[in-house]
Design brief:
Strand order of the largest sheet: 1-9-8-2-5-3-4
Helix content: 40-55%
Number of strands: 9
Radius of gyration: 20 Å
Order of helices and strands: HHHHHHEEHEHEHEEEHEEHH
Largest sheet: 7 strands, mixed
Oligomer: single chain
Distance between the termini: 56 Å
């Protein structure tokens, strides 16, 4: 008999194969419907997305914040269903979904120096990784995904990427790649699980626990740092790859300055198409000691916005920049 893990993997592979048979516009319509359903009743994904949007875009009226939340949930559905195309359709067809690359000149590597490419949870990050690896030798920092690990790894190495686990051995692989003058890919907006190697720095003005790995890699190897994301075009028309230079200070010896620059780079990406960011991710889960938890309380919109209002009052009353 099949054990539970093998059954889960078989079911996931079957679902991917079925979705990959559909045309991409149909997959996106199905994904948008899934996102619409998630947004119809109170649940954590819906609440967390609204909390994050209200914190990061306080200038929007509550109705506008809710509209952006609903649009982001539609994009959330597309993000996860379109993965079937990236992992199961022929590689030339997948890479052909890239209609334009804007800022490609930023990917040029100076002689003897490696390239650190940062792809936030924004747009089609799986496609961004496949596109990056198709350009040359690439090592991608990767967190194990339990029973689906083999399936995910198989999808992510289709264009030649090498995967480095998120541990000391994986960091050594990243260093070796950069020292050879090749490129590495990192998701820069994951919240580190350990206190070591991270600091609080502003993300849209809110203290966010931010990794220092990128700063340390850049300082140690002299590698160039670039941001990249794949913007999803409407109606399944394909994707635009955006490449943006990292803000000044990302390689600073001042850790707060470096982390602030990293978050500013993510903000630049998000502002180009805000609905395509993964707003349901608990980006502010870890808090400074003087701030309350963010993702708590009832699941309805009124309670979520009231939670944001209370947090903003605490921020306004905080010392200095609120990062002390």
């Amino acid at each position: 008999m099949l054990d539970s893990q093998r059954l889960q993997t078989l079911a996931a592979r079957t679902l991917l194969d079925l979705l990959a048979r559909l045309p991409l516009p149909g997959v996106h319509r199905l994904g948008a419907t899934l996102g619409w359903l998630i947004g119809r009743w109170p649940n954590r994904q819906r609440r967390n997305a609204l909390i994050n949007i209200a914190l990061c875009f306080p200038e929007l009226a509550p109705a506008e914040q809710r509209r952006l939340r609903d649009a982001s949930l539609a994009e959330f559905g597309k993000t996860y269903l379109e993965i079937a195309h990236f992992w199961r359709r022929p590689v030339p067809e997948v890479l052909g979904l890239v209609r334009e690359v804007r800022g490609a000149e930023h990917l040029a590597r100076p002689a003897g120096r490696g390239l650190i490419v940062l792809s936030p949870h924004h747009g089609a990050w799986e496609l961004a990784g496949l596109h990056l690896a198709s350009l040359g030798p690439t090592t991608i920092f990767y967190r194990s995904q339990g029973p689906f690990d083999a399936l995910i790894q198989g999808g992510r190495v289709r264009t030649g990427a090498r995967l480095a686990p998120i541990n000391a051995a994986g960091i050594r692989l990243l260093l070796e790649t950069l020292q050879r003058g090749d490129q590495v890919g990192v998701l820069p907006d994951q919240e580190p699980k350990a206190d070591k190697g991270a600091v609080f720095a502003p993300f849209f003005g809110i203290p966010a626990f931010t990794m220092l790995l990128v700063n340390r890699l850049a300082r140690r190897t002299g590698a160039k740092v670039v941001f990249m994301f794949a913007e999803r075009l409407p109606c399944g028309q394909g994707f635009i790859i955006h490449c943006l230079p990292a803000p000044p200070g990302i390689d600073s010896a001042d850790e707060i300055k470096a982390a602030t620059a990293l978050n500013r780079g993510i903000e630049h990406c998000v502002r180009l198409c805000p609905a395509q960011y993964l707003w349901s991710y608990k980006r502010f889960r870890k808090r400074p000691h003087w701030l309350p938890k963010v993702y708590t309380g009832p699941l309805d919109d009124h309670a979520a916005l009231a939670q944001v209002a209370r947090l903003c009052l605490r921020l306004a009353a905080g010392q200095g920049s609120g990062l002390e």
